[in-house]
Amino acid sequence: MARVAIVYHSGYGHTKVQAEAVHRGASRVPHVDAVLIPIEKYEAHWEELDHADAIVMGAPTYMAGASAQFKAFLDATSSRWAAQRWKDKLAAGFTNSAGYNGDKLNTLQQFNLFAMQHGMIWVGLGLLPGNHTSQGSPEDLNRLAGFLGAMAQSNADQPAELVPPASDRATAEHLGQRVAEAALRWAAGAEPHQGATAADATLAVGA
Ligand SMILES: Cc1cc2nc3c(=O)[nH]c(=O)nc-3n(C[C@H](O)[C@H](O)[C@H](O)COP(=O)(O)O)c2cc1C
Known about the structure:
The structure is a single chain. The chain is built from seven helices and seven strands, in the order E-H-E-H-E-E-H-H-E-H-E-E-H-H. By secondary structure, it is of the alpha/beta class. The radius of gyration is 18 Å and the shape is globular. The structure holds flavin mononucleotide.
């Protein structure tokens, strides 16, 4: 059993669609409990976040970084940072914006550095780039060629029913599934070893 928490902000619904796709991908992995936490409700979900094996962060890129609403959540974790309470949890990220580039990478790097400050273990997208040869197409998985996390692009004048497109939704599903599978392996490895004693641990440290 592994727990995956997906915490996200979306001002106009586009990043919500991406977050729901991450959640779908995570939920189809057996023995994984995936919860979707909108940023407006994070204060009611500290317990789920504290007990998660993996936390996936998602926000629209606003002014070249994570939206202010999501940044407020990141800042609110500082007491957990001080206690290194989230150390060794898995972490991953996704972002959506109007530009094909739009400085999305900066948002993913922001999430990555946040996770590093917490001592978390980063899970990247794990896909080769799509749509980067003459044979490629915008329908390709990972059409925006992200590596650090899942990227999506939504035309600013179109509603969330239409954008981000199916390829970006599928890329987000892939991230969710990948994190969930990693969380299962991570949670299984974290179980105490049969027969290990405190003395064994002391010997190992002293060796
Ligand atoms: C305040 C603000 C700043 C934005 N800054 C960027 C930006 O830096 N790069 C970009 O590509 N799009 C930018 N956009 C466009 C949004 O990222 C885009 O509309 C996105 O789909 C919004 O996601 P949401 O519907 O989940 O809020 C900005 C939009 C707003 C409202």
